[in-house]
Design a protein that fits this description.
By secondary structure, the chain is α/β, with parallel strands linked by helices. The protein has helices at residues 2-19, 76-95, 97-100, 117-122, 138-147, 153-157, 169-175, 202-210, 244-252, 287-298, 302-312, 322-329, 333-341, and strands at residues 23-29, 32-37, 40-46, 51-57, 60-65, 68-72, 107-112, 130-135, 162-166, 182-186, 218-225, 257-265, 270-278. Helix 4 (117-122) links the parallel strand 7 and strand 8 (130-135).
Protein backbone atom coordinates (compact mmCIF):
# COMPACT_ATOMS: atom_id res chain seq x y z
CA UNK A 1 0.00 0.00 0.00
CA UNK A 2 2.82 2.40 0.86
CA UNK A 3 4.46 1.70 -2.49
CA UNK A 4 1.31 2.88 -4.27
CA UNK A 5 1.24 6.06 -2.19
CA UNK A 6 4.93 6.70 -2.87
CA UNK A 7 4.41 6.28 -6.61
CA UNK A 8 1.45 8.66 -6.59
CA UNK A 9 3.48 11.18 -4.59
CA UNK A 10 6.39 10.95 -7.03
CA UNK A 11 4.08 11.49 -9.99
CA UNK A 12 2.61 14.57 -8.34
CA UNK A 13 6.11 15.99 -7.76
CA UNK A 14 7.05 15.39 -11.41
CA UNK A 15 3.86 17.11 -12.53
CA UNK A 16 4.74 20.17 -10.47
CA UNK A 17 8.29 20.20 -11.79
CA UNK A 18 6.94 20.11 -15.36
CA UNK A 19 4.93 23.25 -14.69
CA UNK A 20 8.08 25.14 -13.75
CA UNK A 21 10.20 23.77 -16.60
CA UNK A 22 12.00 25.67 -19.32
CA UNK A 23 9.94 27.54 -21.89
CA UNK A 24 10.52 28.52 -25.51
CA UNK A 25 9.20 32.02 -26.11
CA UNK A 26 8.93 33.97 -29.37
CA UNK A 27 7.63 37.48 -30.02
CA UNK A 28 4.92 37.49 -32.71
CA UNK A 29 3.90 41.16 -32.74
CA UNK A 30 4.14 44.18 -30.45
CA UNK A 31 2.73 42.96 -27.14
CA UNK A 32 2.12 39.36 -28.27
CA UNK A 33 4.25 36.26 -27.89
CA UNK A 34 3.86 32.50 -28.15
CA UNK A 35 5.24 30.19 -25.48
CA UNK A 36 5.71 26.41 -25.41
CA UNK A 37 7.31 24.03 -22.94
CA UNK A 38 10.87 23.42 -24.09
CA UNK A 39 11.27 19.65 -24.01
CA UNK A 40 14.76 19.33 -25.47
CA UNK A 41 17.50 21.36 -27.12
CA UNK A 42 18.84 19.18 -29.93
CA UNK A 43 21.30 21.66 -31.37
CA UNK A 44 22.57 25.18 -30.74
CA UNK A 45 25.28 26.99 -32.70
CA UNK A 46 26.11 30.29 -34.32
CA UNK A 47 26.99 30.51 -38.01
CA UNK A 48 28.66 33.51 -39.66
CA UNK A 49 25.13 34.79 -40.39
CA UNK A 50 22.81 33.78 -37.56
CA UNK A 51 22.13 31.75 -34.43
CA UNK A 52 20.78 28.27 -35.25
CA UNK A 53 18.76 26.19 -32.80
CA UNK A 54 16.87 22.94 -33.15
CA UNK A 55 14.53 22.44 -30.21
CA UNK A 56 11.64 20.17 -29.33
CA UNK A 57 8.42 21.81 -28.17
CA UNK A 58 4.67 21.25 -28.38
CA UNK A 59 5.14 21.42 -32.16
CA UNK A 60 7.78 18.68 -32.22
CA UNK A 61 11.27 19.30 -33.58
CA UNK A 62 11.57 22.94 -34.58
CA UNK A 63 14.17 24.96 -36.46
CA UNK A 64 14.78 28.39 -34.95
CA UNK A 65 17.12 31.04 -36.37
CA UNK A 66 17.87 34.25 -34.50
CA UNK A 67 14.99 33.46 -32.15
CA UNK A 68 12.40 33.10 -34.95
CA UNK A 69 10.67 29.81 -35.76
CA UNK A 70 11.36 28.73 -39.34
CA UNK A 71 9.47 25.44 -39.41
CA UNK A 72 8.25 22.69 -37.13
CA UNK A 73 7.69 18.96 -37.37
CA UNK A 74 3.98 19.47 -36.66
CA UNK A 75 3.13 21.69 -39.62
CA UNK A 76 6.11 22.37 -41.90
CA UNK A 77 4.30 20.55 -44.70
CA UNK A 78 1.56 23.19 -44.67
CA UNK A 79 4.02 26.03 -45.25
CA UNK A 80 6.13 24.25 -47.85
CA UNK A 81 3.24 22.77 -49.86
CA UNK A 82 1.51 26.19 -49.88
CA UNK A 83 4.65 27.93 -51.10
CA UNK A 84 5.47 25.48 -53.88
CA UNK A 85 2.52 23.73 -55.48
CA UNK A 86 0.14 26.56 -56.50
CA UNK A 87 2.92 28.27 -58.48
CA UNK A 88 4.18 25.13 -60.22
CA UNK A 89 0.66 24.09 -61.20
CA UNK A 90 -0.15 27.58 -62.48
CA UNK A 91 3.03 27.47 -64.57
CA UNK A 92 1.86 24.18 -66.09
CA UNK A 93 -1.51 25.70 -66.98
CA UNK A 94 0.08 28.80 -68.51
CA UNK A 95 2.35 26.60 -70.62
CA UNK A 96 -0.61 24.67 -71.96
CA UNK A 97 -1.02 21.05 -70.96
CA UNK A 98 -2.70 20.14 -74.24
CA UNK A 99 0.51 20.86 -76.19
CA UNK A 100 3.07 19.01 -74.13
CA UNK A 101 1.46 17.43 -71.10
CA UNK A 102 3.79 16.81 -68.21
CA UNK A 103 6.75 18.71 -69.69
CA UNK A 104 6.42 22.01 -67.80
CA UNK A 105 7.68 23.28 -65.41
CA UNK A 106 11.14 21.89 -66.06
CA UNK A 107 13.49 24.37 -64.39
CA UNK A 108 13.04 25.85 -60.92
CA UNK A 109 15.03 28.32 -58.83
CA UNK A 110 14.80 28.46 -55.03
CA UNK A 111 16.24 31.40 -53.16
CA UNK A 112 16.86 30.30 -49.57
CA UNK A 113 15.18 27.06 -48.57
CA UNK A 114 17.99 25.84 -46.30
CA UNK A 115 15.82 23.24 -44.57
CA UNK A 116 15.51 21.42 -47.95
CA UNK A 117 11.74 20.99 -47.56
CA UNK A 118 10.95 23.48 -50.32
CA UNK A 119 13.22 21.48 -52.63
CA UNK A 120 11.51 18.29 -51.45
CA UNK A 121 8.14 19.62 -52.62
CA UNK A 122 9.53 20.87 -55.95
CA UNK A 123 11.11 17.51 -56.71
CA UNK A 124 7.77 15.76 -56.23
CA UNK A 125 6.76 17.21 -59.61
CA UNK A 126 7.45 14.66 -62.34
CA UNK A 127 8.22 17.34 -64.94
CA UNK A 128 11.10 18.95 -63.02
CA UNK A 129 14.47 18.32 -64.66
CA UNK A 130 16.61 21.01 -63.03
CA UNK A 131 16.42 22.68 -59.63
CA UNK A 132 18.89 25.36 -58.56
CA UNK A 133 18.79 26.21 -54.86
CA UNK A 134 20.92 29.06 -53.50
CA UNK A 135 21.02 29.53 -49.73
CA UNK A 136 23.34 31.86 -47.87
CA UNK A 137 24.02 29.70 -44.83
CA UNK A 138 25.52 26.24 -45.35
CA UNK A 139 25.40 25.65 -41.59
CA UNK A 140 21.59 25.70 -41.61
CA UNK A 141 21.43 23.02 -44.29
CA UNK A 142 24.04 20.89 -42.54
CA UNK A 143 22.14 21.13 -39.25
CA UNK A 144 18.86 20.22 -40.95
CA UNK A 145 20.41 17.26 -42.73
CA UNK A 146 21.58 15.94 -39.37
CA UNK A 147 18.69 16.80 -37.06
CA UNK A 148 15.68 17.25 -39.37
CA UNK A 149 16.08 14.59 -42.07
CA UNK A 150 12.28 14.38 -42.42
CA UNK A 151 12.40 17.81 -44.06
CA UNK A 152 14.33 16.31 -46.98
CA UNK A 153 17.77 15.36 -45.70
CA UNK A 154 20.49 13.70 -47.74
CA UNK A 155 18.04 12.24 -50.26
CA UNK A 156 17.06 15.73 -51.42
CA UNK A 157 20.50 17.34 -51.01
CA UNK A 158 22.04 14.72 -53.30
CA UNK A 159 19.20 14.40 -55.83
CA UNK A 160 20.82 14.51 -59.29
CA UNK A 161 18.25 17.05 -60.52
CA UNK A 162 19.34 19.61 -57.92
CA UNK A 163 22.30 21.95 -57.95
CA UNK A 164 22.82 23.07 -54.34
CA UNK A 165 24.77 26.33 -54.05
CA UNK A 166 25.74 28.16 -50.89
CA UNK A 167 25.91 31.85 -51.52
CA UNK A 168 23.89 35.02 -52.05
CA UNK A 169 20.62 34.33 -53.93
CA UNK A 170 20.33 37.98 -54.92
CA UNK A 171 23.82 38.02 -56.40
CA UNK A 172 23.23 34.71 -58.17
CA UNK A 173 20.05 35.86 -59.92
CA UNK A 174 21.55 39.23 -60.81
CA UNK A 175 24.43 37.50 -62.59
CA UNK A 176 22.94 34.34 -64.07
CA UNK A 177 22.10 34.02 -67.76
CA UNK A 178 19.79 31.07 -67.08
CA UNK A 179 16.02 31.40 -67.19
CA UNK A 180 13.59 29.45 -65.04
CA UNK A 181 9.97 28.35 -65.31
CA UNK A 182 9.34 29.14 -61.63
CA UNK A 183 11.27 31.26 -59.12
CA UNK A 184 10.51 30.53 -55.46
CA UNK A 185 11.74 32.83 -52.69
CA UNK A 186 11.86 30.94 -49.40
CA UNK A 187 13.97 33.55 -47.68
CA UNK A 188 14.36 35.31 -44.36
CA UNK A 189 11.72 37.87 -43.49
CA UNK A 190 12.51 41.48 -44.37
CA UNK A 191 13.75 42.42 -40.92
CA UNK A 192 16.11 45.30 -40.23
CA UNK A 193 19.77 44.26 -40.52
CA UNK A 194 18.64 40.89 -41.92
CA UNK A 195 20.20 39.36 -45.05
CA UNK A 196 16.96 39.10 -47.04
CA UNK A 197 15.78 42.69 -47.48
CA UNK A 198 17.25 43.14 -50.99
CA UNK A 199 15.09 40.23 -52.19
CA UNK A 200 11.84 42.11 -51.51
CA UNK A 201 12.42 45.30 -53.48
CA UNK A 202 10.86 46.56 -56.70
CA UNK A 203 14.30 46.59 -58.31
CA UNK A 204 14.81 42.91 -57.51
CA UNK A 205 11.35 41.91 -58.75
CA UNK A 206 11.99 43.75 -62.02
CA UNK A 207 15.14 41.73 -62.55
CA UNK A 208 13.51 38.47 -61.45
CA UNK A 209 10.91 38.93 -64.19
CA UNK A 210 13.71 38.86 -66.78
CA UNK A 211 14.89 35.53 -65.32
CA UNK A 212 11.55 33.82 -66.00
CA UNK A 213 10.76 31.87 -69.14
CA UNK A 214 8.05 33.64 -71.12
CA UNK A 215 5.14 33.40 -71.38
CA UNK A 216 4.54 30.86 -68.61
CA UNK A 217 7.05 31.90 -65.91
CA UNK A 218 5.74 32.25 -62.34
CA UNK A 219 7.27 33.99 -59.33
CA UNK A 220 6.27 33.28 -55.72
CA UNK A 221 7.53 34.49 -52.36
CA UNK A 222 6.73 33.95 -48.73
CA UNK A 223 5.27 37.20 -47.39
CA UNK A 224 5.11 37.10 -43.61
CA UNK A 225 2.07 37.23 -41.36
CA UNK A 226 -1.38 37.53 -42.93
CA UNK A 227 -3.80 37.74 -40.03
CA UNK A 228 -7.42 37.27 -41.14
CA UNK A 229 -8.33 40.25 -38.93
CA UNK A 230 -5.32 42.59 -39.13
CA UNK A 231 -4.46 44.27 -35.85
CA UNK A 232 -4.21 48.05 -35.68
CA UNK A 233 -0.43 47.84 -35.29
CA UNK A 234 -0.09 46.40 -38.80
CA UNK A 235 -1.48 49.63 -40.25
CA UNK A 236 0.50 51.97 -38.00
CA UNK A 237 3.40 52.79 -40.27
CA UNK A 238 5.31 54.38 -37.41
CA UNK A 239 6.02 50.98 -35.85
CA UNK A 240 7.21 47.58 -37.01
CA UNK A 241 4.45 46.00 -39.05
CA UNK A 242 3.32 43.22 -41.34
CA UNK A 243 4.81 43.24 -44.85
CA UNK A 244 2.09 41.25 -46.61
CA UNK A 245 0.61 44.42 -48.12
CA UNK A 246 3.87 46.03 -49.24
CA UNK A 247 5.12 42.80 -50.84
CA UNK A 248 1.82 42.44 -52.71
CA UNK A 249 1.91 46.10 -53.79
CA UNK A 250 5.52 45.93 -54.93
CA UNK A 251 4.89 42.88 -57.10
CA UNK A 252 1.89 44.68 -58.62
CA UNK A 253 4.32 47.37 -59.78
CA UNK A 254 6.11 44.75 -61.90
CA UNK A 255 3.76 41.87 -62.83
CA UNK A 256 0.39 41.86 -64.59
CA UNK A 257 -1.26 39.26 -62.35
CA UNK A 258 -0.56 39.10 -58.62
CA UNK A 259 -2.22 36.71 -56.16
CA UNK A 260 -1.91 37.15 -52.39
CA UNK A 261 -2.94 34.04 -50.47
CA UNK A 262 -2.51 32.52 -47.04
CA UNK A 263 -2.45 29.33 -44.98
CA UNK A 264 -2.70 28.72 -41.27
CA UNK A 265 0.64 27.59 -39.83
CA UNK A 266 0.10 26.97 -36.09
CA UNK A 267 3.76 27.13 -35.05
CA UNK A 268 3.93 30.65 -36.56
CA UNK A 269 1.04 31.71 -34.35
CA UNK A 270 -1.54 32.23 -37.10
CA UNK A 271 -2.00 32.66 -40.83
CA UNK A 272 1.02 33.10 -43.09
CA UNK A 273 1.07 35.01 -46.33
CA UNK A 274 2.40 34.17 -49.78
CA UNK A 275 2.26 36.17 -53.01
CA UNK A 276 2.39 34.64 -56.49
CA UNK A 277 2.87 36.67 -59.69
CA UNK A 278 3.07 36.14 -63.45
CA UNK A 279 2.49 37.98 -66.70
CA UNK A 280 -0.92 37.91 -68.38
CA UNK A 281 -1.09 35.57 -71.37
CA UNK A 282 -0.98 37.17 -74.81
CA UNK A 283 -4.30 38.67 -75.81
CA UNK A 284 -5.36 39.48 -72.24
CA UNK A 285 -4.23 43.10 -72.08
CA UNK A 286 -7.66 44.50 -71.31
CA UNK A 287 -8.36 44.84 -67.59
CA UNK A 288 -11.53 42.76 -67.78
CA UNK A 289 -9.56 39.90 -69.31
CA UNK A 290 -6.93 40.15 -66.57
CA UNK A 291 -9.71 39.96 -64.02
CA UNK A 292 -10.98 36.82 -65.71
CA UNK A 293 -7.52 35.26 -65.56
CA UNK A 294 -7.31 36.12 -61.86
CA UNK A 295 -10.74 34.73 -61.01
CA UNK A 296 -10.02 31.49 -62.83
CA UNK A 297 -7.03 30.86 -60.59
CA UNK A 298 -8.63 32.01 -57.33
CA UNK A 299 -11.68 29.82 -57.77
CA UNK A 300 -10.89 26.94 -60.13
CA UNK A 301 -12.99 23.84 -59.82
CA UNK A 302 -11.83 21.33 -57.25
CA UNK A 303 -11.52 18.81 -60.08
CA UNK A 304 -9.02 20.98 -61.97
CA UNK A 305 -6.59 21.23 -59.04
CA UNK A 306 -7.03 17.62 -57.97
CA UNK A 307 -6.50 16.47 -61.56
CA UNK A 308 -3.27 18.46 -61.88
CA UNK A 309 -2.02 17.05 -58.58
CA UNK A 310 -2.84 13.49 -59.63
CA UNK A 311 -1.13 13.87 -63.02
CA UNK A 312 1.96 15.76 -61.93
CA UNK A 313 2.89 15.18 -58.29
CA UNK A 314 4.42 12.04 -56.87
CA UNK A 315 3.13 10.89 -53.47
CA UNK A 316 0.09 12.11 -51.58
CA UNK A 317 0.17 15.67 -50.24
CA UNK A 318 -0.71 16.35 -46.64
CA UNK A 319 -2.29 19.79 -47.04
CA UNK A 320 -2.85 21.03 -50.58
CA UNK A 321 -5.77 19.91 -52.74
CA UNK A 322 -8.65 21.45 -54.69
CA UNK A 323 -10.72 22.44 -51.66
CA UNK A 324 -7.73 23.79 -49.77
CA UNK A 325 -6.65 25.83 -52.82
CA UNK A 326 -9.96 27.69 -52.81
CA UNK A 327 -9.69 28.50 -49.10
CA UNK A 328 -6.08 29.70 -49.44
CA UNK A 329 -6.97 32.26 -52.11
CA UNK A 330 -10.20 33.39 -50.42
CA UNK A 331 -8.81 36.07 -48.12
CA UNK A 332 -11.11 37.42 -45.41
CA UNK A 333 -12.95 40.72 -45.88
CA UNK A 334 -10.90 42.54 -43.18
CA UNK A 335 -7.64 41.37 -44.74
CA UNK A 336 -8.77 42.38 -48.24
CA UNK A 337 -9.70 45.81 -46.92
CA UNK A 338 -6.33 46.11 -45.24
CA UNK A 339 -4.53 45.26 -48.49
CA UNK A 340 -6.60 47.87 -50.33
CA UNK A 341 -5.73 50.60 -47.82
CA UNK A 342 -2.01 49.77 -47.83
CA UNK A 343 -0.25 51.64 -50.65
CA UNK A 344 3.38 51.20 -49.60
CA UNK A 345 6.02 50.03 -52.10
CA UNK A 346 9.32 48.42 -51.12
CA UNK A 347 12.35 49.81 -52.94
CA UNK A 348 16.09 49.68 -52.48
CA UNK A 349 16.11 53.23 -51.11
CA UNK A 350 12.92 52.83 -49.06
CA UNK A 351 12.82 49.33 -47.52
CA UNK A 352 10.05 48.26 -45.17
CA UNK A 353 10.79 45.96 -42.24
CA UNK A 354 8.43 43.51 -40.57
CA UNK A 355 8.31 42.81 -36.86
Amino acid sequence: MSDVKDESHDNAIEAQRAKSGFWFSEDLAPGVKIECILKRILHSSTSPYQKIDVVETYFGKTLVTDGKTQSSQFDEFVYHESLVHPSLLKCALLAGNDKQKGATPRSIFIGGGGELATAREVLRHKSVERLVMVDLDKDVTDVCREHLPEWGGDAIATDPRMELIFGDAHEYLMNTQEKFDVIIMDISDPIEAGPGIALYTKEFYQHALTCLNAPHGVFVTQAGTADPIPHAHTEDHQVDTSCFGPINNTLLEVFDCVFPYSANVPCFGGDWGFVMAFQAPEGTEASDEKTKVALEWRTPSQEVIDGLISDRIQDELGHYDGITHTSMFALTKPLRKSLTRDTRIMTKDNPIFMY
